[in-house]
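Re: alpha-D-galactopyranose structure - here you go.
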Amino acid sequence: MLIPVPPMGWNTWNTFAADINEELIRSAADSIVKLGLREAGYTYVVIDDCWSLRERDPHTNEIVADPAKFPGGMKALADYIHGKGLKFGIYSCAGVRTCADYPGSFGHEFLDARTFAGFGVDFLKYDYCNVPVTGQAPLLYRRMGQALRTCGRDILFSACNWGIEEVGTWIRSTGAHMYRSTGDIADNFKSMSNIATGQIPHLSQSAPNCFNDLDMLTVGMFGKGNVGSSGCTMVDYQTQFSFWTLMGSPLMLGCDPRTMTPEIVGLVTNRELLRINQDPAGLQAYRINHCWGNPECFTLARLLEGGDIALGFFNISENPCGNLLLLEHIGLTYESGMRLRMVDCFTGEEHYSGRDTVKVPKLPPHGCLVYRCTPVKA
Ligand code: GLA
């Protein structure tokens, strides 16, 4: 199964945790279609932890969906989701129990993969709590990787071991299509900016068919839900979404799709940002430090298919910050005779750089600007 661009969808965990049921999933799927999110590419509807009974079926050993939460069963729910032109995702864990203490797949990988295939699952998030042996993460992910590859259905394998045991160095060997490399996100600026800046040095370990997953977005949560803490402002969410898109992360929404504001829908369906995220070349974004040494004010650059380059100017500090980018830093020398035509991804406005520099306007605290740039003759 090939996954050439970062997967996009919605996951229940950030907002709902254990408070999930089939009515919620159906109405979330309805909203995803109604709001145009499916058309924008958000196709995976993923049920996270807490969907099963506390124990396996004593006769068949199968994991069983909780009939109180999912009275119609998982197959019928999958059919409903497929009928909407969406894909269905579910969750399990490499340990004996999941992180929220439901049955995990350890020792039952092949049985569970067949059960999930029988449900009509298209995506499996595979967590790492309660593993009975330590230091064996590659083996445990390879087991489920093989189980999925032989279960008779194409299932996207989404690994989640939070970056331990140097996951980026071996995860591609398991057949995983995306992998979590950090602890859980919380809905505040510090949490999300720490995840983003912490992963910039690891972006060489993210490429088509296996993407570094910065975690489910908190965009649009405004402090509500399971990982809601202080919440974020609209500026914070613009910056989060810009980081995730520029860094080529999977885009899994974590807010409640039934109550998304038009402003948030506009942000997560921003065509230019999504075009950068889904760029077919899948090249590595890189960091260019602030010209006067402010560590919290920097640039991310990423080469795009067809000759364009994306530039994101970020200020994660609590004070306004200006910057100056030397075109030398992106490999455009003065001798090249080029400058940049720059299209602002938020406003569509067009600007031109100088022949050797881009003067970055003063960014507000937590602010960012993202441009799609084309090198042109100066
Ligand atoms: C871990 C994962 C989260 C979520 C919970 C569910 O903490 O990192 O994303 O899946 O487990 O219990």
